[in-house]
Amino acid sequence: MDRKNPIGVFDSGLGGLSVVHTLRKMMPEEDILFFGDSIHNPYGTKTKEEIAKYSMDICRMLESKGAKAIVIACNTATSACVKDLRQIFDLDIIGMEPALKPAASIGSHQRIAVWATKLTLEEKKFAQLMSRYKEDHDIRKIPCMKLVALVENDQLDQQAIVDEVLQEYLEQSDWQNLDSIVLGCTHFVFFKKRLQELTEGKIQIIDGNEGTARHVKELLEEKSLLNSEGGDIVISNSRKDKIDLSKKLLDVLEDLDEI
After folding, report:
1. What is the pLDDT of residues 15-52, one digit of tens each?
2. CA dist 115 to 49, 158, 174, 182, 228, Å?
3. Residue 74 annotated to the active site
4. Cβ distance 149 to 12 under 8 Å?
5. d(C-alpha 175, C-alpha 181), whole Å
6. Which terminus of the chain, N or C, has less C-beta within 10 A?
7. What is the DSSP string of 104-161?
């Protein structure tokens, strides 16, 4: 494996671009191959077997293109099949899980809402994660599939619709009696700043992107695979009509950083 090889990243759709953005900020000289599986989006309504098949095919494709590590930028796919993928592929497979640990570490008796897909919240992997913290903290599970559709359907600039959906989930979460909201889906990161505004900065809005990117960097450092002369991002998608939207969403994330 050569350090100049790219990092592969994939998602059930376009939410994983938020992970690409974080990886780029942390490792600006890495080449990144991103694949969005929008034709099968959302994974949260599929069976584990279907998700495993999609993920396997995508990993094979990224491996064939020389990926030196693969990031599953999708909590749902991670829950469904990360263990199986790690047994099959001879390279690092980095998954994602809702960032409960950072939320719980804020203090004792934290009141935490986890926003994620229905499948992520119902999977054994999340149950095991939640079991570590539920005795000491109040954890509420909130399935939020409408947020995925807003990103996939290019509706982020339709503020009234976005706010209506966010307010619906905030009410379900009883947010005024929360300490934090954990964004357990990479699509939801696009709403992070607006959530901070709607909750008036009174609660923490937490996602797992930075922790995932840091873990990728550590793994590459251990194997002397960090690149020092790249920086390209190549975007592909199972729906070619989503390529332009993907590029637009990366620009949206850049703009959000500047606010």
Report:
1. 999 999 999 999 999 999 999 999 998 888 899 999 99
2. 23, 21, 13, 6, 36
3. yes
4. no
5. 8
6. C
7. HTTSSS-EEEEEE-HHHHHSHHHHHHHHTTTTTSEEEEEE-HHHHHHHHTT-TT-HHH
Tracing tokens 């954890």 back to the chain, one arrives at: 139
- 71 and 216 Cβ atoms separated by less than 8 Å: yes
The residue from 59, 81, 144, 185 that is catalytic is 185
Q: How far apart are CA 155 and CA 133, in angstroms?
A: 35
Cα–Cα distances (Å) from 107 to 103, 124, 132, 241, in that order, read 8, 26, 15, 45
Angle at 178 between CA 173 and CA 179, to 5 degrees: 140
Asked whether the whole model's pTM tops 0.90, one would answer yes
| Residues 147, 152, 158: CA angle, nearest 5 degrees | 65
Dig out the tokens for 64 from the structure.
């064939």
* Residue 143: strand, helix, or coil: strand
- Whether the ω angle into residue 143 lies within 30 degrees of 0, i.e. cis, is no
The SS3 of residue 44 is helix
Q: Is 185 a catalytic residue?
A: yes
Tokens representing 92? 């690092």
Measured distance CA(42)–CA(58) in Å, rounded:
15
- Which of 59, 74, 81, 144 is an active site residue? 74
pLDDT band at 255; cut points 50, 70, 90: confident
